[in-house]
Amino acid sequence: MRFSVKTGAPLLALALALSACGTSGGDDEEASSGGGEAGTCEDVAIGYFGALTGAAANLGINIRNGVQLAVDQFNEENADCQVSLEEYDSAGDPNQATGLATQAIGDDSVIGIVGPAFSGESDTAGPIFAEGGLPTISASATNPDLSQNGWDTFHRVLGNDASQGPAAATYIADVIKSEKVFVVDDASAYGAGLAEIVEESAGDAVVGTDTIQTGQTDFSATVTAIRSSGADSVFFGGYYAEAGLLVQQMRAAGVEATFVVADGVKDPGFIEAAGDAAEGTIITCPCLPPEEEQEFYAAFEEAFGAAPATYSAEAFDAANVMLEGILEGNTDRESLLEWINDYSGEGITKTITFDEDGEPENISVWAYKVENGEIVADQEIETN
Question: pTM of this prediction?
Answer without folding.
Answer: 0.88
